[in-house]
Amino acid sequence: MFDELRECVFEANVEIVRDGLVVLTFGNASAADRAAGVMAIKPSGVRYDELRPESMVVVDLESGAVVDSEYQPSSDTPTHVVLYREFAQVGGVVHTHSPFATAWAQACREIPCLGTTHADHFHGPVPVTRQLTRDEIEGDYERRTGDVIVETFGRRHLDPLQTPAVLVASHGPFVWGADVAQAVENAIALEVVAASALRTELLRPGVEPIGDDLLRRHFLRKHGPGAYYGQRP
């Protein structure tokens, strides 16, 4: 049961390790099957080289309860569940502690859009959340992590598929997409632009963000109804 969902989530978790975004067990990927009302996610604390498709844990999208597995789901499952509930177009979520994106998160700084590489993937800066309060940390921490992400996007009036990533302050990145393969691609892109932004600021402190016209052109040539990048079917 849920074999196809488990397989794609397994492949996504393998991919984020292969691409250098995850070491040890510092990360997880999930995918939702909205028709079935479930998601699948990596099991908690299991080494990546021990994972198999059947290891993926299927969880109810409403209750967060395990539907089908002998394993406990990732400790970040409540965060993923909040994102699926609140961002209706999202079909896959990736969380990592990739070095450069995490450095920006630990600095509690958004990643500015300094060039066209960034603009190809993210329509403006990658936002950073506020710090969680003591009550949020000591309470339902993982769910509150999801809540603060949603709060950040609401406060800034951001479209989750135009800005498919966030930095949780002092923690690390959460990235998503229309499906889990796209979420993995966006996680790779995030780490690349995080590294480029840091190096650019070292080379030219106080550098200004890319202009709105160039930002818009590069984003829209890959995204939206007028996109023309790549091959047409």
Description:
The protein is an alpha+beta fold. The protein has a single domain, classed as Class II aldolase/adducin N-terminal domain (L-fuculose-1-phosphate Aldolase). The protein is 39% helix and 14% strand. The protein has helices spanning 3-18, 77-86, 99-106, 116-119, 134-138, 141-155, 180-203, 212-220, and strands spanning 27-33, 38-41, 57-60, 66-68, 92-96, 165-168, 172-177. It has a 7-stranded antiparallel beta sheet, sandwiched between helices. β3 and β4 (66-68) form a beta hairpin. The longest helix has 24 residues, at 180-203. It is globular. The model has no long low-confidence stretch (mean pLDDT 94).
Q: Label the overall shape.
A: globular
Main sheet: strands, sense, barrel: 7 strands, antiparallel
Q: If you consult CATH, what is the topology?
A: L-fuculose-1-phosphate Aldolase
Q: Topology as H/E string?
A: HEEEEHEHHHHEEHH
- Class by alpha and beta content: alpha+beta
Strand order of the largest sheet: 4-3-2-1-5-7-6
- Alpha-carbon Rg, integer: 17 Å
- How many domains make up the 3D coordinates? 1
Q: What's the total helix number?
A: 8
Share of helix among residues?
25-40%
Name of the level-1 CATH class: Alpha Beta
Architecture (CATH level 2) name: 3-Layer(aba) Sandwich
Detail the poorly predicted runs: none
Mean pLDDT: 94
Distance between the first and last residues' Cα: 32 Å
Specify the CATH homologous superfamily.
Class II aldolase/adducin N-terminal domain
β-strand amount: 5-15%
Q: Total number of β-strand segments?
A: 7
In a nutshell, what does this entry contain?
It is built from eight helices and seven strands, in the order αββββαβααααββαα.
